[in-house]
Amino acid sequence: MKKIGFIDYFLDEWHANKYPEWISSASEGKMQVTYAYGKKDSESGLSNSEWCAGKGIKLLSSIEEVVERSDYLIVLSPDNPELHAELSELPLRSGKPTYIDKTFAPDRRTALQLFETAGTYGTPVYSSSALRFASEYRELDAQGIEMVCSVGPGSFEHYSIHQIEPIISLMGCEARRVMFIGTEKSPALLIGFADGRQATINHFGWECPFTLTINYESGSAKVAQPKSDFFDAFIRNLVSFFETGEPAVDAKETVAIITIIEYGLKAARTPYQWIELP
């Protein structure tokens, strides 16, 4: 059995609650989350020690211990990517396959630094929104896309990753500029690509499901709404990554996604003006 270590801001959060059982099932028990570290206790839920006791996972007192005793590593803190540089430093120096939860980094500079550290120490690493693995999205023809319109719920800061990730996976990394075209309550971003193609992301209320509408150069259109179990597909991909050390997502795509999020937040300060991407 291969041992997986969790490294988190606090352990009582949705991803940490779900991943252990899902990973065990997807790997047929060959991989188990065995160790965990939390920088702090949850302010509204279980303490780290209570969480570990309930999950049958050993709580360790340092990131160093988790890295040393685990075969594979998962850095969580999904809603606090500003902590990923701190939480990931030792994992990325370990040489052990490491998954860093969405959103990978708070900005482009940090994303590049994380990948540089991983490359220096030969550590396989990747990050992704689970929406990338929705079968309804993966079955889409990426050739000849002229325009994509994406809609979904949640705030731009925490949920734009789930719209931008599928767009970049379909349209590539050549985004060149962004323009904020929404409102405070309904954020929206226009993304311009180098060859004139465009995509929009739109955030509405929680009643709005994730949906992609694609228009092709041929004039035909396609609407895709992820109703498949994309988390199951994501976890199976994660298990495969641990087995092979081969990331499913190119680092260039992840950097492009983080760049769009960072500059999208900047664009919100000056709506209806193009902001060039580095």
UniProtKB/TrEMBL annotation:
It comes from Paenibacillus abyssi. InterPro entries: NAD(P)-bd_dom_sf (IPR036291). The lineage of its organism: Bacteria, Bacillati, Bacillota, Bacilli, Bacillales. This is Gfo/Idh/MocA-like oxidoreductase N-terminal domain-containing protein.
